[in-house]
Amino acid sequence: MAIEHVIFTLALMGALALFVRRIYLLFAMVLLGQGEDRFDRLHERLKSLLIYGFGQRRVVEKPFGVNHFLLFWGFILIQLAVNIEFLLNAIFPAFSLRFIGEVPYGVMGFIGDATSLVVLVVALVAVVRRLFFRPPYIESKPGAYLILVLVVLLVIGNFGIHAASLAMGGSPAGLPISRLLAALLLRFAPGLNFPVLRQLSWWLHGTVLLFFVCYIPSSKHLHIVTALINCFFRRLSFPSALPPLAFRKGETFGVSRITQFTWKDLHDFLSCTECGRCALMCPATATGKVLNPMEVILKGKANMETNGMEVLRARSFDSLGRADKKAPVPLALIGGSEEGQVGPEAIWDCTTCGACVEKCPVFIEQFPKLLKMRRHLVMEKVDFPPELITLFENVEQRSNPYGIAPLERDRWAEGMEIPLLSECRSAQYLLFAGCVPSFNARMRRVLASIVEVLRKAGLSFAILGKEEFCCGDPLRRTGNEYVFDRLVRANIERLKGYGVERIIAFCPHCYNSFKNDYPLFGAGFEVFHHTQVISRIVAQWAGAPAMRGERVVIHDACYLGRYNGIYDEPRRIIRAATGRPPLEMERTGRESFCCGAGGGRLWMHESRGTRINTERTRQALASGPSLVATSCPYCLIMFEDGLKDENAHNRVKVMDVSELAALVFTGHEAAGTR
Fold first, then answer.
1. Which residues in 490-605 belong to E strands, given as ranges?
2. Pick from 83, 135, 188, 535: most CB atoms within 10 A?
3. pTM of the model
4. Strand, helix or coil at 655?
5. In the CATH hierarchy, which fold is given to the domain comprising 538-665?
6. 40 exposed, middle or buried (CB, 10 Å; 0-12, 13-18, 19+)?
7. Coil, helix or strand for 673?
8. 29 alpha-carbon distance from chain centroid
9. What is the Cα–Cα distance from 509 to 486, expressed in whole angstroms?
């Protein structure tokens, strides 16, 4: 064996040792997290791995994602078609894969050669894009350029080896690009020392390959491995609910250190591709707030690296498993501006709209981590925005966020002769009004429209009246899990006592709570949003549209759309009312931009940057509407404020889709529906 092969073999052994040690440490750090079952529904998980991991479905949703797709698969194919043989030949100089047969060997050579050209082109395109056309949501970091340059050098080394070998009279099979390069070299540089060129190319390719082995586990490009794992262990549905807390003596609440996260949370930190898509979609980031969801994940990773190593140093090398939640750590997770710390401002900026989770190509769960940190700030540190003091006290003492006497709860229903559930237990549905609609004059008109449509359809429903309490959503989304827990259990006991089976909710936040949060506490109600019921009703009416000529633009509420997948029903109602589909904003459907009120933000001041509802209102006005339609009381309030701020309230109206449906039925009788 030549000395160069001995040197390379020793270097490879060292690189592999570093690689294995680093992977072991990262694996051990991930296992420090608390337990979480992500091994269910294995068939669906394998499907996710294929579609989202290897198929990169979310990556290619953006135009430039195709470039990444080609780079990803090109890199894999180069390892299979080029580098396996290269490494074996470097260790055993006489080794060749020709034993598989000339035709298969030629096909493998063709794949390696063609793929190398594709990878070279897409890597150069990526470098040019970052240098001259870099989108604002992608940060310019040296590591990104380094990896692209190394990919280019790796491919150049591969072409150099084969082109020089061919120019020297060799006959490697199936190398069209290398043959062309060899022909060009022989024509324009016939005096070139081809043995030296081959040797230099061999060492260039080998050195870059060794560097990759050492560098990838310690860089952001670790996601080449971890992203695939994250796609397998992804949450198989949108994180519409958080698991309840166990209120036991000595228990910790929320998350203030990495050992309190689950192992999947910690794996998320290692899987970030730093593509910036979560930041691009985040309404807080877009309007100049402190929060950047990508930075939250990167700070979590830095914190995990620091604290994880400290915890592991206190253990034996072969000790793997979760850490004590109260284990001391040197770097606090929530704090100042140090690397590895998430500031409280960022934690409270989140509207919990879920756009970050919806668009992440590797299924990182950003906002649930912020909610876990809110739980800690509220229940352990009692450190939260002062406006929330009033919210918490009002809900705890008066069962609504406004602190209005419960006796006023059913004022909205005066004169409508709606039966109370306590007097009409045979009603098919409970109509749950919600806090915001019950105590807001504008929203009472929406409730009246819902009641009118339900009656036109002949539905049997009743209300709780003064016995209706807050669903608890504002508490859960602001971290006050203890009061939320008490409220939910009391609500479930009351509803079960009345034999409630089916609920119609006006507010998407109430709907999400009953549908996704309450089952975790033992509830089993069948829950409908009012748009689901009303869309079925209007589908049975064949009269002329009542609002022809209106230019209606639709806003998709986050807790209705992303949280629960309800997009078509509001559009059907608008089509029935206007005779045509609604106008769509640039950010619509799954990519809808939040109104700014979710996550308890309706009760908090917004002092930094542009107001989120103002930005969303501007997006709506860009389509030239005469009416903005939504399906959420929070959104309706935010749009009305936004239109006033933009001096557009005299020419553009805001309506709930149920109000459009009521206009459809004005003067007409609807066929009954069940």
1. 502-505, 526-529, 552-554, 583-584
2. 535
3. 0.92
4. strand
5. Rossmann fold (3.40.50)
6. exposed
7. coil
8. 23
9. 18
Domain spans in the chain, listed from the N-terminal domain onward: 3-30+62-224, 258-379, 400-536, 538-665
Q: Which fold has domain 400-536?
A: Rossmann fold (3.40.50)
Residue 581: CB atoms within 10 Å: 12
Q: Is 400-536's fold the same as 538-665's? A: yes
List residues bridging with 504 in a β-sheet.
431, 528
Only one residue has tokens 């036991």, namely 248
Assess contact for 631 and 660: CB atoms under 8 A. Answer: no
Token pair 């709570």: residue: 513
Contacts of 446 (CB under 8 A, 6+ apart): 437, 506, 633, 636, 656, 658, 659
Architecture of the domain defined by 3-30+62-224? Up-down Bundle (1.20)
Q: Per residue in 42-85, pLDDT tens?
A: 999 999 999 999 999 999 998 889 999 999 999 999 999 999 99
Three-state SS at 101: coil
- Cα–Cα distance for residue pair 266/258, rounded to 1 Å: 8
Collapsing DSSP to helix, strand or coil, 653 comes out as strand
Tell the CATH topology of 258-379: Fumarate Reductase Iron-sulfur Protein; Chain B, domain 2 (1.10.1060)
What DSSP string runs through 235-254? -SS----PPPPP--TT---S
The reported pLDDT for the residue numbered 543 is: 67
Instruction: At 261, give phi and psi (nearest 5°).
Output: -75, 165
| Residue written as token pair 């140093």 | 313
CA dist 464 and 286 (Å) reads 41
Kind plus residue range of the DSSP H or E element containing 155: helix 142-167
Q: Report which residue type is found at 239.
A: P
Long-range contacts of 644-650 (CB under 8 A, 24+ apart): 645/611, 645/614, 645/617, 646/614, 646/617, 646/618, 646/621, 648/617, 648/621
Phi, psi of 72 (to 5 degrees): -60, -55
The pLDDT tens digits of the residues spanning 629-671 come to: 999 999 999 999 999 999 999 999 999 999 999 988 774 433 3
First to last CA, the chain: 83
* Contact criterion met (CB below 8 Å) for 510 and 473: yes
